[in-house]
């Protein structure tokens, strides 16, 4: 069995699925796209209610809700937390989500990438607490910027050297030999990358590509809330709803179309009934049998984007 620091090799994959990485060896060759439009009226009413008695500095933000829903989705639909590297399937042994934090909302403001490492029992309030702590720290300017300094040093070398170094690191990663110290600070080694473009007022978020570098299988681009005319599927009447447009890019090799469709049904249900995010059932079946999750105290090291 191939050993990897952030995943457990899956031995139960059907032969036809094990064949996919041989005919589609690179992640960009295997992308599928989903245009997800979530009705947010229930979620917004829920946020207003739970924030009534919370101090302004500790209110649950809509992005916290997005994070909690995505995390819950990965808990309930564990195949999303798979990845393929070296033409081998792995079940990730952590829930690690990356996103960008800007100090100010303008074109030239400094960006920091945050890696939020969540546990299997983290509900909405724990997600909120961890996310807000990481975001506050990212805005102080006191975090370690050694990764940026390392890249600045690397880029002082000739292009042939940089090309050779990147190629070597890629090959080492494909063989599970990349130094862990480099991989753990890389935002493309995680469960999902989440781009909250809605915070910048983007109404039509793009579909992002997947990178062959690293092992991230899903990319979420979330737009700002908009009003749309929606046809009620039961009555046939047209209603005006508040919509969160989401563009999801995924590696189609990790699951089939029916599984992905059911994932988005679960995802939508969490926003229609957001109170479900408050608690994780005590009797919830272990969605990751045989996988030992790493225990950490917070997120990965943050670095400049």
What can you tell me about this protein's structure?
This protein has one domain: Chloramphenicol Acetyltransferase. With 305 residues, it is an alpha+beta fold. It is built from eight helices and twelve strands. Strand 10 and strand 11 form a beta hairpin. Helix 3 packs across helix 4 and helix 3 crosses helix 8. Strands 3, 6, 7, 8, 9, 10, 11 and 12 form an eight-stranded mixed beta sheet that branches. A four-stranded antiparallel beta sheet has the order 1-2-5-4, with no helix packed on it. 31% of the residues lie in helices and 24% in strands.
Number of domains: 1
Name the beta content range: 15-25%
Q: Might you state the CATH topology name?
A: Chloramphenicol Acetyltransferase
Principal-axes geometry comes out as globular
Could you say which structural class the secondary elements and strand pairing correspond to? alpha+beta
Got a strand count? 12
CATH class descriptor name: Alpha Beta
Oligomeric status: single chain
CATH superfamily: Chloramphenicol acetyltransferase-like domain
Q: Helix amount, in percent?
A: 25-40%
Biggest sheet, open or closed, and with what strands and sense?
A: 8 strands, mixed
Reported CATH architecture: 2-Layer Sandwich
């Amino acid at each position: 069995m191939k050993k990897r620091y952030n995943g457990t090799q899956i031995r139960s994959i059907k032969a036809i699925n094990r064949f996919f990485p041989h005919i589609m060896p690179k992640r960009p060759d295997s992308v599928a796209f989903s245009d997800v439009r979530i009705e947010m009226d229930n979620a917004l009413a829920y946020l207003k209610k739970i924030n009534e008695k919370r101090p302004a500095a500790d209110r649950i933000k809509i992005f916290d809700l997005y994070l909690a829903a995505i995390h819950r989705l990965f808990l309930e639909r564990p195949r999303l937390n798979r990845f393929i590297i070296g033409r081998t399937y792995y079940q990730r042994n952590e829930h690690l989500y990356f996103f960008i934090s800007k100090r100010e909302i303008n074109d030239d403001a400094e960006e920091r990438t945050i890696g939020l490492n969540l546990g299997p029992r983290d509900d909405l309030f724990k997600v909120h607490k961890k996310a807000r702590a990481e975001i506050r720290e990212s805005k102080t300017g006191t975090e370690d910027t050694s990764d940026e300094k390392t890249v600045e040093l690397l880029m002082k070398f000739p292009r042939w050297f940089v090309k050779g170094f990147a190629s070597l690191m890629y090959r080492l990663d494909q063989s599970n030999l990349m130094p862990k110290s480099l991989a753990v600070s890389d935002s493309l080694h995680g469960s999902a990358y989440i781009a909250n473009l809605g915070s910048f007022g983007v109404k039509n978020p793009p579909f992002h590509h997947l990178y062959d570098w690293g092992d991230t299988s899903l990319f979420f681009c979330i737009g700002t809330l908009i009003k749309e005319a929606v046809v009620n599927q039961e009555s046939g009447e047209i209603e005006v709803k508040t919509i969160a447009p989401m563009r999801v890019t995924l590696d189609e090799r990790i699951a089939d179309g029916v599984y992905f469709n059911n994932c988005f049904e679960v995802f939508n249900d969490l926003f229609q009934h957001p109170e479900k995010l408050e608690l994780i059932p005590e009797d919830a079946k272990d969605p990751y049998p045989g996988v030992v999750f790493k225990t950490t105290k917070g997120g990965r090291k943050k670095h400049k984007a």
